[in-house]
Amino acid sequence: MTQWTERLAELASRHDVPGATLGISQGDEQIEAAYGVLNLRTGVEVTTESLFQIGSITKVWTATLVMQLVEEGKIQLDAPLVEVMPELRLRDPKVTMRHLLTHTSGIDGDVFTDTGRGDDCLEKYAAGLSEAAQNHPLDATWSYCNSGFSLAGRVVEKLTGGTWDAALRERIITPLGLEHTVTLPEEALMHRAAVGHVTDDGKQVLAPVWGIPRSAGPAGAIVSTVGDVLRFALSGMHPEMAEHQVDLPDTHLLGDSWGLGWERLNWGGHRLIGHDGNTIGQASFLRVLPSQGLAVTLLTNGGNGAKLYEELFREIFDELAGVPVPHPLGPPATPVEVDIAPYVGVYERASIRQEVLPEGVLRVSVTGPMAEVLQEKPVDYRMVAVEPDLFVCQDPETGNWIPATFYELPTGEPYMHFGARATPRCVR
User: Fold this and answer.
1) Where does the record place the Beta-lactamase-related domain (predicted)?
2) Which residue in the list 25, 50, 56, 215 is annotated as catalytic?
């Protein structure tokens, strides 16, 4: 216990993380550690019972709800969604639940329309998807899709007769005895809850908002503790959820493939499943090694959470399981000469505009509703070639390297895969 508490503190301090909690479960033993403060303004100390936003780890919980309904015969994974939601209008009416859970629907994935705090927010959100772009043809590629999980949450509502929040509480939270897991800010206020932090002029400051719109709930609104996240992860899942469903165009940023809700990773020949989550100023990480009954989760509220995760999990998985955590892709030791001209142009989807400039810079701008919330300026990433069609782009703020893969769909359209999203080129 002391070892991992000390390492959490040392590494979190090194990477400017204001507060964090760590949970490790293996066999009958569970370790929980806490570091730092929940809020730099108030100085409230983090404890192991502190709640953090787990972000997109929420998607696995929503997928679990769906699989319960599949088991009950209320929906089929490969039936068009319009069979259970006749009112649904999408650009492609053949979208199924499997497409949503595997991020292959092609629905533009970052539609963050705020449809209010009412219990009808997901109903309104799903109706608004009739205007959403089809980012890529159905099944043509893989692209991370928040919108699809909000839609999946609406399907859960249709089939259960209540809200997604109520279904989660009745079907997962209460049966598992998760006493520190909530979905709404007024519920989080009843607990010791973390506030997100962002970097401003090299310093950590409070995030401009606390949470995300309720309409994004099924994609990322759960607030929980490391203990509750571990209990959920080890509670026994539908075996099909961890099985291979689709390969990823970029195998360097996340895993190599996806299941039903779960990310699939290959670490030195060992198969893991997991998921990460990011909200405004908070980041979370969950990895499960089924073969050794090992699960590890890390919740953070700012700073370079990705670096903290990388270094801490490398030590944990090496010592407890003898499993090597791959190093992130970075610039090659020997420079690689690649002509960038074929990739120059504008790549755009909802909320994001990406420009590959002739001088080897990727300029990323937030657009739409998210731009109003975040008020961020365009960010320029330096691009370094790794091999033909593959570059790494350095985040000027964190120094982290992010892969950018250029490829074509089977039908020939040029795409860039960056930040786990497939984005079509719209201007050459």
Assistant:
1) 8-318
2) 56
Q: What are the structural domains of the chain?
A: 1-327 (3.40.710.10), 341-427 (2.40.128.290)
Catalytic status, residue 365? no
CA-CA-CA-CA torsion sign (67, 71, 76, 78): positive
- Surface-to-core class of residue 123, CB atoms within 10 Å of its CB (0-12 exposed, 13-18 middle, 19+ buried): middle
- 142 token code pair: 């893989």
First to last CA, the chain: 55
Q: Where are the beta strands (DSSP E) in 301-395?
A: 345-349, 352-357, 361-366, 379-387, 390-394
Closest CA to 391 of 400, 377, 402: 402
Residue 305 near residue 15, CB atoms below 8 Å: yes
Residues in contact with 157: Cβ distance below 8 Å, sequence separation at least 6, in sequence order: 122, 123, 163, 164, 167
Residue type, 131: E
Q: What is the number of H-type helices and E-type strands within the chain?
A: 11, 20
> Whole-prediction pTM value?
0.95
Contact 46, 15 (CB under 8 A): no
